[in-house]
Amino acid sequence: MNDTPPPAGRSYEVQHGDSLSRIAKSNGVSVQALLDANPQVRNPDVIYPGSHLTIPATRYTVQRGDTMQHIAADHGLTLQALVGANPQVRNADLIHVGDTLNLPSVGHLVDGLPVVGSVGLVHDTLLPVYMTDPRYRSDIGKAAIASGSAQSTVELGMTRALNADPTGKRDVTQRQIAEPALARTDGTRNQPTLNLQRFTDPSLGSNALAAIVIGNAEGTRRPDGGFTAAYGGHTDPGNAVHNRGSFSYQHAASSPADADRRQLTTLQGQLPAYEAAARRAGLDPNNARLASAYLDLYNQSPSAAGRFLNQLGTLRGQPIDAAHITNLRVNSYVDASTGQRFRLSGGGQAGSGFVNIANRQVHGTATEAQVQAVIRADQKRRTDAVDSALNRQGLLNGTATAPTPAATVPASASGTGKAARILDVARGEIGTKEVSGGRDNPRVLEYHQATSLKARNDETSWCSSFVNWTMKQAGVPGTNSAAARSWLNWGTSVPKDAAHVKPGDVIVFPRGNSPAQGHVAIVEAVLADGCVKVVGGNQGNGPGNPDGVNEKVRLLSEAIGVRRAP
């Protein structure tokens, strides 16, 4: 075909508050392309107001298997915009390998959708044209937008018409011309649940919200949808393989956007199994945090994601919060019943990439406890990153939780500060158990290291070790003692009644008839019937099951003391 010369590169003056990712996104180019055009930028995280950057002209060479529709989706464009920028393409259904296409600049995002052009002025307001998909719309049609003598037509599948007054009065009754990415076709907005098909839509490529949310966990994207330098390509710290795109894709792809489209196709293919498993567990598969956690874990390790689905039932009756999600993710690598990483059918253990990371951290051969510490830290980091992106995209407001027992004071009522940190850490350990036989759970041994006793087996009573370890992780001083009753002299005394006890308080119960023995746990909720729900270590898991970290309901009147963090 006859190639059309692309527009020449242009100069841009850096403004206060600019970043490379913001400049790249607002000009429709990748961060890597912007860096390639500006070799004077040595550190992509440092640019100075007043300096000038070259915005590269954007062109694309057709690859085998490409279609105009896929190329448009990969670069955040509508098919109409791509065809309009390439008048040399006489038949949009017929392009050839090696052909060169001009890519029109993509502007800023409005309501989460990329603007690719404009349709004219309505009362001095430039109306943007969005990349949208009619499959997710219920009421889109052609309409004329009048503004004085100017008139433009909004094409089917591009925008929803603005209701402009044809008499020319300055009154626009509907300013929203494209639904947000996750709006339902019944017109409702800000829903706490996801449209999973839309969330993972491959045709949206790097603009899909799954790419942003999971990309933030990968370090390739920012919560606001921006790109980091890693998006263009980087080396995986676990297996040293080069990857690219939002999902750190490690297979053949023609571009980072193409990599995103391919991985979105894979993730979308996992939705039926995930939805079925969630429903079997009595959970809402459209819960934003739960669905994102599964998809992110699948992106990281498909085998771990399979074990995640097998254990969804452990979330029944629990809040779908960051602590419980993190714990379930960890238990997708570490068998809670043995304290060891899962054995793989082909040999070896789950999480081999974490072994490499742990070895580098200790500059030698890491112990199993050190490997598991890396796993937990990574899963917590990813959970927090997913939450950050979901929150930035407005998808956590009102997110539903699984049904929980009625309580007058919910576990989150303690708000922020020490109590919240203590509970977050403690609940993140739920599922840790002693190991039967001659072996010991390395996690329990880690708890013991938070006391002066530093016991070396998980048969030694460890309820106080668990609470001391929890306090240490939360940045709160503990008692440094393995004795449960040592907590009776810790912090501030709290009256033993429902009006005063709060989540995050430490509670001590008697054990047997010995005045020297006891059991210590952390209050998670104050219930309406004179009971408290506590989370603690070394607590029974039922007949025949080893003790572990779990939640129990106890009578508040049975406590011999309640204390609050100093």
Short note summarizing the structure:
The chain has 16 helices and 19 strands. It is an alpha+beta fold and 566 residues long.
Architecture overview:
With 566 residues, the chain is α+β, with helices and mostly antiparallel strands. It has four domains: 1-108, LysM domain (Membrane-bound Lytic Murein Transglycosylase D, Chain A, Roll); 113-179, no CATH class; 196-392; 411-564, endopeptidase fold (from Nostoc punctiforme) (Alpha-Beta Complex). It contains 16 helices and 19 strands. The strands form seven sheets. Strands 14-19-15-16-17-18 form a six-stranded antiparallel beta sheet. Strands 5-6-7 form a three-stranded antiparallel beta sheet, with no helix packed on it. The termini are far apart.
Span from first to last CA? 76 Å
Tell me the strand percentage band.
15-25%
> How many strands, what sense, and barrel or not for the largest sheet?
6 strands, antiparallel
Structural Rg:
28 Å
Overall strand count: 19
Tell me the structural class.
alpha+beta
Low-confidence stretches: 1-8, 106-192, 398-416
Mean pLDDT: 76
**Individual helix count:** 16
The dominant shape is elongated
Helical coverage, percent range: 25-40%
**Total number of domains:** 4
The neighbouring-strand order within the major sheet is: 14-19-15-16-17-18
Top keywords for this entry?
566 residues, alpha+beta, Membrane-bound Lytic Murein Transglycosylase D, Chain A, 3-stranded antiparallel sheet, elongated
Task: Compile the SSE list and pairings.
Blueprint: E1 10-13, H1 20-26, H2 31-36, E2 52-55, E3 59-61, H3 68-74, H4 79-84, E4 100-102, E5 109-110, E6 113-122, E7 125-130, E8 143-147, E9 150-154, H5 196-199, H6 209-218, E10 234-235, E11 242-243, H7 256-269, H8 271-280, H9 288-300, H10 302-310, H11 322-330, E12 334-335, E13 340-341, H12 352-362, H13 368-392, H14 418-427, H15 442-448, H16 463-474, E14 492-493, E15 506-510, E16 518-526, E17 531-539, E18 548-555, E19 561-564
Antiparallel strand pairs: 1-2, 3-4, 5-6, 6-7, 8-9, 10-11, 12-13, 14-19, 15-16, 15-19, 16-17, 17-18
Helix pairs in contact: 6-9, 6-13, 9-10, 9-13, 11-13, 11-14, 12-13, 14-16, 15-16
